[in-house]
Amino acid sequence: MLTGASYKHGVIHPLIEDSLLRSVRNEIKEHLDFTEKETDIYKIFQSGDLANLDGLDDASLSKLPSLLKLRDALYSARFREYLSAVTGSGKLSGRKTDMAINIYNEGCHLLCHDDVIGSRRLSYILYLTDPDTPWQSEWGGALRLYPTTTKKDINGEDVLVPSPDFSLSIPPAFNQLSFFTVQPGESFHDVEEVYHPKEGEDKSAKRVRMAISGWFHIPQKGEDGYEEGLEEKLAERSSLAQLQGRGDIYDLPQAKPVVCEKEPEIKGKGKAKMEEEPSSEFSESDLNFLLQYIAPSYLTPDIAEEMSDTFSNESSLNLDRFLSDKFAARVRAYIEEQEKQELPKSSDEIQAKTEWTVARPPHKQRYLFQQHGTATSDQKTPIQELLNDLFPSLAFRKWLALITGAEHITSYDLLARRFRRGQDYTLASGYDGEEPRLEFTLGLTPTPGWEKETDEDEEMEDEDGEAQEKFKKKETASADEPAVGGYEIYMAGDDEDDGDAAIYKSAAADEDDGILFSTAAGWNRLSIVLRDSGTLKFVKYVSAAANGDRWDITGEMGVDFGDDEDDEDDDE
After folding, report:
1. Average of pLDDT values for 63-68?
2. How far is CA 529 from CA 25, 318, 389, 401, 422, in A?
3. Judgement on whether residues 404 and 496 belong to the same structural domain of the protein
4. Residue 346: pLDDT over 70
């Protein structure tokens, strides 16, 4: 069946002779190894490239006869002609095969993307789930398609903008082939998380979504249908920078920086700065204002000096119990009450019926947000008090400059965010500003289970190598406590501009040396980072297994360290 309800896609069920596919499944289970891979966009277990089966020695090939037969059938001239005719995609290559076996266990997922890389023409998934235990749709693992809307870019040209909500969900089934045409900026899809069993459900029977997935490519040189220069033209058209840039004006949230007027120059740092000119630079009224929100310990000269020294050395800070007990209790009560109330399902309903808006497009981000200056009622929530009163205040900016050694906070842009379980994330994005900027995140997630609490204070004092170990520990969950994501991470960017587009954003979770700073979702913790140009940042997808949503307030602060500070604060 081929349908265009979302975009051109089809489902054939069943496709392969039953006994052959069962034999393929058995060979895979007995003879292939799988590697766990996790990046900002996915968490999966993957085999090697099955296109290279011909390169295996005879002994290895002899163990995979059914798999080899299946691969040759999928890329046979007859089946390629059939798919080409059904989809209207044009001729398909039989020489350039491109397939792998992916296993999605509980917690695995693949976030929204359009599959546009190089010479791909058709994407497909052939499911190898347990043939004797039919897959249940409530287990997750569905292929979900996202509709697009045609809008105008800044040049008046049409650009396709994907909805933050999927429009079609195709659950897995043994011997089912799902396929779609690869269309730049249009064929957006994801793979729904395979959900952990809920309380009361059988946890002994593991949910294993096994599938062969791959692509059919345009004909290669010497094949029927080959077009000189077509691959280069497609590569240019599928440029990631081009695809992500043209529709940026429809991204939500849009940057909303507020430029700050320069205050009189402050000299010194930390304790000295607070003591030298308390009346003109950090006044009693500033202190009284901040005491309404911030724990008193962070407003003392000695602690300010310690924070300033730490930040000068490490370009980052983690401040536990940042809000005062009294104000933190108000925030917690508000958030816990909000989590008891069911949110509307669609993004449009959320915007119409709540104070939140859904971030978009989904191939970059999805979460609920409120921006500073957008409170709609006279009665502010505790979140809105932080967003609109504390963090934009001159008193807070003075305090932030004091503890980071800055001469002046030049601008600020603030967001309150809520990352819903089983839905929300941000994918890795870069920062290309000429000067470093301060970024802070105040974690306001009251639920437990995001990280191990053992020796937390000691781990926070560790050097870079230990901090990476801390990151790994957080994501190593026991059988009873699955890893639930939701951590915010800064990573070193890729300096190679001409790298293979196929490995775009594979910010390898198995290569710890790229991790600059990470922090799990948590309660009442302020993290501050000096972010350099080229640094990547993302918030990992929040699993449906989490005990609650991830809540935070985040800020991007332009900063001037003065001419004499440049060399000192260029560490990160």
Report:
1. 95
2. 48, 9, 22, 13, 28
3. yes
4. yes
How many Cβ atoms are within 10 Å of 503's Cβ, its own excluded?
11
CATH number at residue 313: 3.60.130.20
d(CA 539, CA 527): 14
Is the model's pLDDT at 4 over the cut of 50? no
What angle do the packed helices 18-31 and 65-74 form, to 10 degrees?
A: 120
In angstroms, the first-to-last Cα distance of the chain is: 54
Tell me what pLDDT residue 235 has. 79
Cα-based distances in Å from 185 to 62, 113, 175 = 42, 9, 29
Residues 243 and 268 placed together within one structural domain of the fold? no
Q: Are 344 and 358 in contact (CB under 8 A)?
A: no
**Global pTM value:** 0.89
Which pLDDT band, with edges at 50, 70 and 90, does 570 fall under?
very low
Q: What is the domain range of residue 161? A: 2-248
Q: Examine the domain organization and report whether 382 and 511 are in the same domain.
A: yes
Q: Are strands 97-104 and 209-217 parallel, antiparallel or unpaired?
A: antiparallel
For residue 57, the model assigns a pLDDT of 79
Task: State whether 266 and 204 are in the same domain.
Answer: no
Give kind and range of the element (H or E) at residue 529: strand 523-531
Q: Is residue 572 part of a domain?
A: no
Provide mean pLDDT across the span 219-230: 95
Q: 525 lies in a domain?
A: yes
Instruction: Provide the 8-state DSSP code for 248.
Output: G
Domain membership of residue 445 (yes or no) is yes
Q: How far is CA 81 from the centre of its chain?
A: 38
Please compute the mean of the pLDDT values over residues 162-186 and round it to a whole number.
96
Q: How far apart are CA 420 and CA 546, in angstroms?
A: 9
Distance CA 252, CA 346 (A): 16
